[in-house]
Amino acid sequence: MPLETLAPELLKAFWDTLYMVGISLLAAVIAGLPLGVLLFVTDRGLFWENKPLQTILGFLINIVRSIPFIILLVALLPLTKLLVGTTIGPTAAAVSLSVAATPFFARIVETALREVDKGVIEAATAVGATPWMIIKDVLLSDALPGIIHGLTITAISLIGYSAMAGIVGGGGVGDLAIRFGYYRYDNTVMITTIIILLCLVQVVQFVGDSIARWIDKR
Which stretches make up the ABC transmembrane type-1 domain (predicted)? Predict the structure, then answer.
């Protein structure tokens, strides 16, 4: 298929991919950030120590993370149908992407928080800082560059996952590659979609790294 004929489809697929990744990334931040903080502060020796809760949360997160995305995508079709009324299209695919991204980002947040010097936390506790103040002004502030790097990694993973969502009619660049590139044996479409995904990943990585360097006070 000539590129000039394909251009409208490519543009729509590109925006669908951004839409899916944007929604799922927002969901990962809203749900995954507090989940990651909770995993950290309930650990042994910290101010909200609660080992049973941390163990249960960690177990549930590991269950979701251990399921390959394509299987998770199919398994969540009934939930997707219930939530958005359909199992095809970018909005439907965003449900599965959000479920996959949330535990992934939560673990990254937990890892970033573990890089914060324990002495700083102990000093804040000693001067009477409340748990919320420690979380907001110490933990998240010091771990922010690492969290931004983690958000970048999550976004890039979601771009790859969104391409897989095309297998079940999720829309986006992956759906275009399957419908026109794979089923119709059109190498032009396949190569074009690969180039688009490569460029998108490079841009996301560059922006994420730039923001992380800008806010890093160390």
Answer: 14-208
CA separation for the pair 129, 147 (Å, rounded): 23
Query: Which domains are delineated in the chain?
Result: 3-215 (1.10.3720.10)
The pLDDT tens digits for 7-59 are 777 888 888 889 999 999 999 999 999 999 998 888 877 777 788 888 898 89
Count of other CB atoms within 10 angstroms of residue 97: 29
Structure tokens at 153: 């990694």
pTM of the complete model:
0.86
Residues 6+ apart with CB under 8 A from 176: 9, 10, 13, 166, 189, 193
Letter for the amino acid at 15? W
